From TrEMBL:
The gene is Acsm3_2. It catalyses: a medium-chain fatty acid + ATP + CoA = a medium-chain fatty acyl-CoA + AMP + diphosphate. The lineage of its organism: Eukaryota, Metazoa, Chordata, Craniata, Vertebrata. InterPro entries: AMP-dep_synth/lig_dom, ANL_N_sf, Mitochondrial_ACSM. SUPFAM superfamilies: Acetyl-CoA synthetase-like. GO terms for biological process: acyl-CoA metabolic process; fatty acid biosynthetic process. Belongs to the ATP-dependent AMP-binding enzyme family. It comes from Calcarius ornatus. GO terms for molecular function: ATP binding; fatty-acyl-CoA synthase activity; medium-chain fatty acid-CoA ligase activity. This is medium-chain acyl-CoA ligase. GO terms for cellular component: mitochondrial matrix. Residues 52-172 form the AMP-dependent synthetase/ligase domain.
Length: 188
């Protein structure tokens, strides 16, 4: 409990505090546009690659079976760039377009979040407890052009497709495949 997840937390806390202090005192300019993926994740990946930051996981996920996924900042950055390419190229999304993501908190959920930040795509998260009626409402209200979900929820999405005139692509996150769906893992 006393060990810091990212190693020396005193140094990290001091760096963050001093950065915010310099902003508050007007010594550091705020960027006109801030993008977490490029301004934070990519910067930490660069520091990690240059050996100026210890190699600690940027992402560490463990499921109930004990399976784990662990990515460095460089790996997480690279995978989020690939995911952004999937969204823009295969799914045809552009800055400002919307995607509904109805997934449990699997690693791909986090990749989609950061990729959307990176590409300027609006992510609309949804709980995996949504009903078909809930999904249709979110698709219609958001005018989402893409939906990402897993094998379990794909049938609920398919049952309401006729009522969603804006949806252009469907992204399946999981091991299976379905007619008319893009497979995230294959595209990545």
């Amino acid at each position: 409990p006393s060990r810091a997840f990212h190693g020396n937390n005193r140094l990290l806390t001091f760096q963050i505090t001093s950065h915010y202090e310099s902003i508050n005192q007007g010594k550091t300019e705020l960027p006109e546009y801030f993008n977490f993926a490029s301004d934070v994740l990519d910067e930490w990946a660069r520091l990690e690659k240059d050996g100026r930051k210890p190699a600690n996981p940027a992402f560490w996920w463990v499921n109930e079976k004990g399976d784990e996924v662990k990515w460095s900042f460089e790996e997480f950055g690279s995978l989020s760039k690939k995911t952004a390419n999937v969204l823009s190229e295969a799914c045809g999304l552009q800055r400002g377009d919307r995607i509904v993501a109805i997934l449990p908190r699997v690693p791909e959920w986090w990749l989609l979040n950061v990729a959307c930040m990176r590409a300027g795509i609006v992510l609309i998260p949804g709980t995996s407890q949504l009903t078909a009626k809930d999904i249709l409402y979110r698709l219609q209200a958001s005018k989402a052009k893409c939906i990402a979900t897993n094998d379990t929820l794909a049938p609920a999405v398919e049952s309401v497709l006729s009522g969603s005139q804006f949806l252009k692509s469907k992204l399946l996150v999981g091991q299976g495949s379905r007619d008319g769906w893009l497979n995230f893992k294959e595209l990545l």
